[in-house]
Specification:
single chain, alpha/beta, eight-stranded mixed β-sheet, three-stranded antiparallel β-sheet, 9 helices, 11 strands, 22% strand
Length: 319
């Protein structure tokens, strides 16, 4: 009798940006650092620290604030949340691109910046990240941390997010309305749908976020068997909560002309405006997905920072 063949060793069936590897046996391997090298530009004008907002799940966030000698008259600071992107599958508050962007946000906005981590897929499929986003918001509202208690103006809370973080911002707007949040900034929000938009259909394969990676993120992050029309991905899909009754705080939607997500975000804003919601779009012509974290010091990133600062300084009014 011939000996049984040795079982085939597990092999990679899904991979995301050289950081996340899903194997044929269902196991998942993650690398702690991103697959790119970016130096952190910290000039010392902003101080930062880490805190835990959900000890049971081991979830933390990073707080940033201008150093006291950079503050005018000891005034309390607006609170500006930044939920990182990564298709709900990768990303971290500790990655250098996130660190650089948050350092600039704190310095330029004169704000207490809050950068939470959240559970990632496929180990924790949606809506886990949305629940964690809400938990971080409530933790800050409790003023349990000394920096929040000392520095934060909790009547001026703004919620922003990049890509998947922008999707979190949408769902927090639906969950909390305008009662706890003064305004939302959705930075190239990661929405989905089974019917391709023009910007999705025409997206080149060499784009920073292309169709293959876009679809892979949804396949790995949505509940098993769900399509991109699931309400978590598509705010207007079957089963999505009706948005007409939601009391939206002023919402700024930022899009890039070369971004695969451009048309879906523009359509999202147009539909909300048709419902009478206070939503405006800022379209950065020629910019790719995530341009403001890829190079936070570019001319386009500086222009975006000025737009966000006017929004925050005016307590959610559009210029």
């Amino acid at each position: 009798m011939a000996p049984e063949a040795a079982p085939e060793p597990p092999h990679v069936v899904d991979e995301c940006r050289g950081v996340l590897f899903v194997y044929s046996d269902g196991s998942v391997v993650r690398r702690a650092q991103p697959g790119f090298s970016t130096p952190v530009r910290d000039d010392g004008s902003v101080e930062w620290k880490d805190a835990t907002y959900d000890a049971a799940r081991g979830l933390g966030l990073r707080l940033y604030r201008p150093r006291r000698d950079h503050l005018a008259g000891g005034a309390r600071l607006p609170v500006f949340f930044y939920y990182h992107g990564g298709g709900f599958c990768i990303g971290s508050r500790a990655w250098p691109n996130c660190q650089n962007y948050c350092l600039r946000l704190a310095a330029d906005l004169g704000a207490l910046v809050v950068a939470p981590d959240y559970r990632l897929a496929p180990e924790h499929r949606l809506p886990a990240a949305l629940d964690d986003g809400a938990a971080a918001l409530l933790w800050v509202a409790s003023a349990a941390d000394p920096w929040v208690a000392e520095s934060a103006d909790l009547a001026r809370v703004f919620v922003s997010g990049d890509s998947a973080g922008g999707t979190i911002a949408h769902h927090l707007a639906v969950r909390f309305g305008s009662a706890a949040v003064r305004g939302y900034v959705q930075l190239m929000p990661f929405f989905g749908g089974t019917e391709r938009t023009r910007s999705e259909a025409e997206c080149p394969d060499d784009a920073f976020l292309n169709r293959d990676l876009n679809d892979r993120y949804w396949r790995l992050s949505l509940p098993e068997g769900a399509t991109a029309d699931h309400p978590v991905a598509n705010p207007f899909g079957a089963g999505a909560p009706p948005l007409e009754a939601v009391d939206f705080a002023p919402t700024l939607v930022v899009v890039g002309g070369r971004d695969i997500l451009h048309d879906r975000a523009v359509d999202y804003a147009a539909r909300l405006r048709a419902m009478g919601k206070p939503v405006e779009v800022r379209d950065f012509e020629g910019q790719q997905h995530g341009f403001f974290t890829i190079d936070p010091w570019s001319d386009a990133s500086a222009q975006l920072m000025r737009v966000i600062k006017r929004f925050v300084d005016s307590d959610g009014r559009f210029d």
